[in-house]
Specification:
Molybdenum Cofactor Biosythetic Enzyme, Chain A; Molybdopterin biosynthesis moeA protein, domain 3; 6-stranded mixed beta sheet; 12 helices; 28 strands; MoeA_C_domain_IV_sf; ATP binding; metal-binding
Amino acid sequence: MSAPRVAVLTVSDTASADASADRSGPIIRDILSERGYECKYHLIVPDDEAAIRHTVQTWCDQDDVDWVITTGGTGFGVRDRTPEAIRPLIERDASGLVHLLLAASLQYTPLAALSRPVAGTAKNTLIITLPGSVKAVKENLAALLNGGVVDHALDLIRGGTGKQPRTTLSHDPSLPASARHRESPYPLVSVKEALDRISAEIEPPVISEELVTSHLRGYVLAEDVYASQNVPSSYTTNVDGYALRHTDPPGVYKVVTSQTHSLADTLPADTIYRINTGGPLPAGADAVIMVEDTRLHSTIKSPQGEDLEENEVETLVSVPKGDNVRNPGSDVQKGDLVLEKGHIINSAGGEIGTLAFVGRTKVKPSAPGDGWGGIWDTNRPSLQAVLEGMGYKVVDLGIVPDDLDAHVSALKIGLECADMILTTGAPRWAQATSSSPVKPGKPTTFATIPTPGRASERVPIFALPGNPASALVTFHIFVVPALRRLGGWPSERCNLPSIRVQLQDPMRLDPRPEYHRAIIKASPVGFKAYSTGGQRSSRVASLNGANGLVALPARGENGPSQWVVGDLVETVIIGEIQVE
């Protein structure tokens, strides 16, 4: 019987306007041609239901195509209409093939559940829809071709018996068992030569776009990543406190919050706006006073006379314009190179946090929290990546609105199913607990919550800072030892290992103990530490490639202001050490 005849239809608005943008169609042709299929047609149409259906219908009516493959338009995008275009043409549904396609892709990513494949026959033609992703196309074709699934189906559709000839595998089918080689007839090669041969035979990986989620651990960037906008995109703060005008003198002010005042509205006179680290300033405010420089003056009372929210707060000092305020673009400016081509996304969470931080996911922006303007959800994907990289199962409680009831509701859900709870930002329940003065990471809060009836009567909870770098650093310093203790690790192994390293860059000292993000490399003369650059706590890019946290002591009154190149410093190891 002659080779099966195939027609490929690429469905894409972009590729229909520029054929060079069609990446999956040529891949399908190449794979099938190598397998001996005859590729008769390859067309490109936009994401238009009528155009898709007309093209496939024409091929089926011509009776010169055995297998029609479409690629693209099978997801949940607004313009994804391929399944709707194909279903009316199907005369005999092939639900087993649909299951095969989904099962194959789900082995690689749970997002495959969002694909909507269609398979079946129209007249004497098999029709199968594939996604537009090159990676998914390769996975789906492998499932269809390996094991002869499609070959068997096409043989039956074309009137064959579907029976496959029986084959026997042998080292050398032309020889009896007694005459086979007792030693390999192939020459031995050196390890280097073997590695060179393997490298030459391994094809470069397929380049595909992926959502920025924790599953990207181990991926390699195929292109440079640039910031799509300024970060932050508006005036924000780097402390917990109250936004006000720098001209407001010390005194008593009414407190408004994101629940009672819109950011777009000018801050009224005689009021201050309660703000958390990373939050945007309301219109009219140009400075932020820290909580430590205020005093509670009055509270809102419940009907029972209990103190509830702040009503009035007294400011104790004047603040200059711009105090504790981050300007737009002060962390990353639009167009800045944030990650280079070839960068490996590791399980320390820095790279995933950076991609989310600059608003990239395919790079696509993550959902903003309640009342936050232009600020990306960085900490959830980065922390989830680290935890899953350590083998922990993560229950994502999502982004919680800034009100007490929402916090309590989310915590109740977490207490029912988790052994430990992590939050980032400034949860209201944390205002009455203790914190740790460390840089970056003030305040980091730890508490336990009673859970009667559970095997463990108290569930530990960590409130990590909202700044991205602070959240990841405090996670490694405080949360990892707690997780290991919960897991039964010996006490001497609960803390992450530390080694002495030689500084290759000067590092300034702060009044607080500081963990300086660095890249640790092993050399013939010992371990070396290279700074990752600016260490501002909001700068998650300082964790790109970081595998160590250099433990810098607090600056003494009469001590040095910095440690210099060549100094030996204790360093906490958070990732695989590189070789120089």
